[in-house]
Design a protein that fits this description.
With 128 residues, the protein is of the alpha+beta class. It contains 2 helices and 4 strands; from the N terminus they run ααββββ. The chain starts with 7 loop residues before the first helix and ends in a 5-residue tail after the last strand.
Length: 128
């Protein structure tokens, strides 16, 4: 009489193969998610800077920090970053930063904190 089913050896081989595939695929997937969130943050920073420039064209100055924060709240942005504006309407300058949320998906991302200024300068330049 023949028994049907799997032997313990066959089962262990399948588990080892699944573990190996997961060990290779998971880091790649995490890097892909980080890159997607980073691109979404860059898009949001660009949209925020455009809103600030529109304000400057209409009113002759960049928004105050509180008005800038209100503008940022209206723009769709990833939850994996915290967006912070620093404006000086009298000097005609602004910088918007996007810092990865501590403990979030992009925490430890190779690019770290992203920023854009009124001059169009984007930092870190290697990540844009």
């Amino acid at each position: 009489m023949r028994y049907k089913g799997f032997t313990l050896t066959e089962l262990l081989i399948v588990i080892a193969i699944i573990g190996l595939l997961a060990g290779v695929a998971l880091p790649s997937y995490q890097a892909h998610v980080q890159q997607g969130n980073r691109v979404a943050a860059q898009l949001a920073l660009t949209q925020m800077a455009q809103q600030f420039e529109r304000n400057n064209a209409r009113q002759g100055k960049y928004p105050t920090t509180s008005a800038a924060e209100a503008t940022i709240a209206t723009i769709d942005h990833p939850d994996s970053y915290t967006f912070t504006p620093v404006t000086d309407p009298d000097a005609g300058t602004f910088t918007i930063t996007a810092a990865p949320v501590s403990g979030g998906v992009n925490d430890g991302d190779e690019c770290g904190t992203l920023s854009i200024a009124q001059t169009g300068e984007t930092l870190p330049s290697t990540c844009w």
